[in-house]
């Protein structure tokens, strides 16, 4: 799995596995173990996905050492009321997952007391209980204001990006601040009949790749990290086979028109 280095020196895989929409504990635990067995080394969850416990179990029982897997969870908007609330939420996530440290901890949404809550994340980071801190869903105008007043800057901004929502200006702005963009819903959650899109299908045929593989490749080639979710073991493998081909300039331009 290809990796990149975040601005704090931490290395993470460019492609991660997300578990949004898998609330059933047994199914989620099995999916995460399958994901690890097929090669994923970054697992993305959140308290709101109602599967932190299952993810924690899978990480502890998957057969790899804890250090080999990068786990991300998030601080929910409902817990952003203050420094103390954020501290308690982080401790709860660790306890629920049965882990003694977190790899990546992110604000889920820019809501509530973002300044007080960020002080808590800075403190947790300084104590070494998390290896990287960041945000999700911060539009540039929100991030500009937020960045002015921080001791430790976010290293990731996890945002929605896919062929129907390309956000080129936002992405350039975020990258210019040395913050890694990590795309969520790369397949637009299946909306707009993405898997049958004629442009994506035609490009895929040329490289003997599926629409999903073309989309993931298109994101990776822009220097964007990606999270994808599937409960199917076959699709987990398919979604990782994106490092053995390269979209040419015309393909990138044509997808850019979507
Ligand atoms: P997504 O990855 O865009 O789409 C998932 C859908 O695509 C599922 O229905 C899956 O179906 C299908 N799929 C996956 N691979 C496929 C393939 N190769 N061929 C055909 N269908 C395929 O959506 P997402 O789950 O919303 O986003 C990914 C992750 O991003 C989430 O799991 C979560 O970790 C994270 N996320 C973060 C935020 C945030 O606010 N920070 C918000 C949303 C999501 P099957 O499972 O049936 O294969």
Low-confidence segments, given as residue ranges, are none
Structural class: alpha/beta
Q: Could you tell me the mean pLDDT?
A: 97
The hetero molecules present are: NADP nicotinamide-adenine-dinucleotide phosphate
Structural features, described:
With 258 residues, the chain is an alpha/beta fold. Helices cover 40% and strands 18% of the residues. It is built from 10 helices and 10 strands. The strands form 2 sheets. An 8-stranded parallel beta barrel has the order 3-4-5-6-7-8-9-10, surrounded by 5 helices. A two-stranded antiparallel ribbon has the order 1-2. Helix 1 crosses helix 2, helix 3 crosses helix 4 and helix 7 (198-207) packs across helix 8. The longest helix is centred in the middle third of the chain and has 15 residues, at 83-97. It is globular. The two termini are 28 Å apart. The model has no long low-confidence stretch (mean pLDDT 97). The site of NADP nicotinamide-adenine-dinucleotide phosphate has 28 residues, from strand 10 and helix 9. NADP nicotinamide-adenine-dinucleotide phosphate is lined by residues 18-21, 44, 108, 136-137, 158, 184-190, 195, 210, 212, 227-232, 235, 238-239.
Notable traits:
258 residues, alpha/beta, 10 strands, globular, binds NADP nicotinamide-adenine-dinucleotide phosphate
Quick structural gist:
The chain has 258 residues and is an alpha/beta fold. Helices cover 40% and strands 18% of the residues.
């Amino acid at each position: 799995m290809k990796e990149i280095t975040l601005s704090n020196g931490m290395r993470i895989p460019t492609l991660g596995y997300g578990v949004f929409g898998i609330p059933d504990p047994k199914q989620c635990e099995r999916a995460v173990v399958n994901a690890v067995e097929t090669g994923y080394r970054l697992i993305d969850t959140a308290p709101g996905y109602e599967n932190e416990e299952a993810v924690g179990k899978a990480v502890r029982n998957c057969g790899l050492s804890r250090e080999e897997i990068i786990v991300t969870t998030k601080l929910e908007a409902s817990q952003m009321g203050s420094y103390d609330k954020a501290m308690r939420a982080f401790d709860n996530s660790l306890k629920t997952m049965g882990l003694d440290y977190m790899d990546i901890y992110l604000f889920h949404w820019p809501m509530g007391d973002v300044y007080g809550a960020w002080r808590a994340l800075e403190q947790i980071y300084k104590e070494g209980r998390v290896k990287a801190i960041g945000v999700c869903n911060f539009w540039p105008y929100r991030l500009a204001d937020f960045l002015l007043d921080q001791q430790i800057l976010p290293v990731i901004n996890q945002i929605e990006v896919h062929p129907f929502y390309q956000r080129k200006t936002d992405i350039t702005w975020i990258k210019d601040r040395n913050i890694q963009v990590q795309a969520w819903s790369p397949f637009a959650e299946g909306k707009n009949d993405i898997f049958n899109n004629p442009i994506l299908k035609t490009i895929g045929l040329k490289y003997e790749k599926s629409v999903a593989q073309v989309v993931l490749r298109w994101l990776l080639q822009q220097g964007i990290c990606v999270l994808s979710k599937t409960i199917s073991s076959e699709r987990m493998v398919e979604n990782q086979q994106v490092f053995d081909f390269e979209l040419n300039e015309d393909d990138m331009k044509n997808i850019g028109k979507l």
